[in-house]
């Protein structure tokens, strides 16, 4: 039995490893465009030079799992067309290509490996006193601004968004703003309309705001994750309005039951882009295929959230307590203890992907 896994992020890696443990006869090939497993939850550290986000993929995959460094152009009936022109056959396929960004012209996206590397190089080249602007008030933007401020205190750092920490409780949002203030991050509650290269002061770019004013920036980072790669759509799979593949209760494509779709590119009701989402989906899909091969009845996918975590540099952080349906409670933890907790969550995510050992809560009833 041939199994192809497209994508080696959290969902794809745990799916490949879990299936390798449960179906010894499976010939598993992971197709990935780079030779590394990337911890997306550490990309802000990669950018700021305070940590590393890449680990050799060979050290993450179980023995017997083959890798193919390439892209997939199209998925068709029982085979995939690779970027080098060759084809790879499959009996079952796991689609786990994650999400992507559509950055504003003149900005560098931080939510992808390639964008993060561009940002890292550009940031390292900035002389003291220059200004870095981060666009996006979600957790990605907060972490990026905080980490840059922590790693490069010689720079001015600005965070621009209509709302900061919208997914958090009111109290947690206030604590995040306090943490940013302690790192001297300037918070501008506004929207960016465009970036004009070289039109700012001292040769910087002019970041135009919805309010009509502009601010000068010498490096502008786009920290908004929107959309997914169009592989599912161009392969003829049914997708929703955001381009995510529509799946059944077992995480199989409604267009082809041989194809499991997991992670950010799957249209799972109530799910949000996160490693806490990708890992349970990848594990459950592998378990489902193993049950099917054994002639056992598959179980519907069910997953509940516990909360959200955000880093505010290396010594501060916040853990927001949530309900299984991902709504937030008033309770949160902050400070050094939360920073340690967030670090342990990140380590557990990587451990789960590598070992295929991962536990999660059942979803809300």
TrEMBL record:
Residue span(s) of domain FAD/NAD(P)-binding: 1-274
Keywords: FAD, Flavoprotein, Oxidoreductase
Pfam families with a match to the protein in the record: Pyr_redox_2
Group of enzyme by EC: oxidoreductase
The organism of origin for this protein: Streptomyces hundungensis
PANTHER family, sorted: 64 KDA MITOCHONDRIAL NADH DEHYDROGENASE (EUROFUNG), APOPTOSIS-INDUCING FACTOR 1
High-level lineage: Bacteria, Bacillati, Actinomycetota, Actinomycetes, Kitasatosporales
Gene3D superfamilies assigned to the protein according to its UniProt record, in alphabetical order: 3.50.50.100
Cofactor(s) annotated in UniProt: FAD
GO molecular function, one term: NAD(P)H dehydrogenase (quinone) activity
UniProt-recorded name of the protein: NADH dehydrogenase-like protein YjlD
């Amino acid at each position: 039995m041939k199994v192809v896994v497209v994508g080696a992020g959290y969902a794809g890696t745990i799916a490949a490893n879990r299936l390798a443990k449960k179906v010894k006869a499976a010939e598993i090939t992971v197709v990935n465009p780079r030779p590394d497993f990337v911890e997306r939850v550490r990309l802000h550290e990669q950018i700021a030079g305070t940590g590393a986000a890449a680990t050799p993929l060979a050290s993450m995959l179980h023995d017997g799992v083959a890798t193919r460094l390439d892209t997939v152009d199209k998925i068709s009936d029982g085979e995939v067309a690779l970027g080098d022109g060759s084809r790879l056959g499959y009996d079952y396929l796991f689609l786990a290509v994650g999400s992507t960004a559509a950055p504003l012209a003149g900005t560098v996206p931080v939510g992808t490996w390639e964008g993060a590397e561009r940002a890292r190089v550009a940031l390292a080249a900035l002389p003291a006193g220059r200004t870095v602007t981060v666009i996006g008030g979600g957790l990605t933007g907060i972490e990026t601004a905080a980490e840059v401020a922590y790693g490069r205190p010689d720079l001015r750092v600005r965070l621009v968004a209509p709302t900061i920490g919208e997914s958090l409780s009111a109290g947690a949002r206030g604590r995040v703003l306090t943490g940013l203030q302690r790192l001297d991050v300037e918070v501008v509650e506004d929207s960016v309309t465009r970036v004009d290269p070289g039109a700012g002061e001292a040769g910087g770019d002019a970041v135009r705001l919805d309010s009509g004013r502009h601010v000068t920036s010498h490096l502008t980072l786009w920290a908004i994750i929107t959309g997914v790669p169009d592989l599912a759509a161009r392969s003829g799979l049914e997708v929703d309005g955001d381009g995510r593949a529509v799946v059944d209760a077992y995480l199989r494509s409604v267009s082809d039951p041989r194809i499991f779709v997991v992670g950010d590119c799957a249209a799972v009701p109530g799910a949000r882009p996160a490693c806490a989402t990708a890992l349970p989906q990848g594990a459950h899909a592998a378990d489902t295929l193993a049950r099917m091969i054994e002639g056992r009845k598959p179980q519907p996918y069910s997953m509940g959230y516990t909360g959200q975590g955000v880093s505010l540099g290396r010594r501060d952080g916040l853990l927001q307590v949530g309900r299984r349906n991902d709504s937030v409670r008033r309770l949160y933890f902050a400070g050094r203890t939360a920073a340690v907790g967030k670090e342990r969550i990140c380590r557990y995510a990587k451990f789960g992907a590598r070992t295929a050992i991962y536990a999660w809560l059942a979803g809300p009833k």
